[in-house]
Amino acid sequence: MCYKKCHAMNQSGQLFGNAGSLSREQIIEKALHASEYAERVEAVKLIDDQEVLIRVAQDDPDYFVRQTAVERITNQEVLVKIACHDKDYYVRLAAVKGITDGKTLSGIIMKSQDDYYICKDALHKITDNDVLAALVEALTDRDIKSAAVQAITDQKLLAQIARNNSDFYVRSDALKKINDQDVLVQIARHDSDYYVRALAVQQIDDPGVIRTIAFEDPDYFVRGQAVTRISDVSVLQQIITADHDFEVRQKALANIDDAAVLKQLLSEINDSWIQRKIKSRLEELGV
Question: Is the domain of 91 the same as that of 128?
Answer without folding.
Answer: no
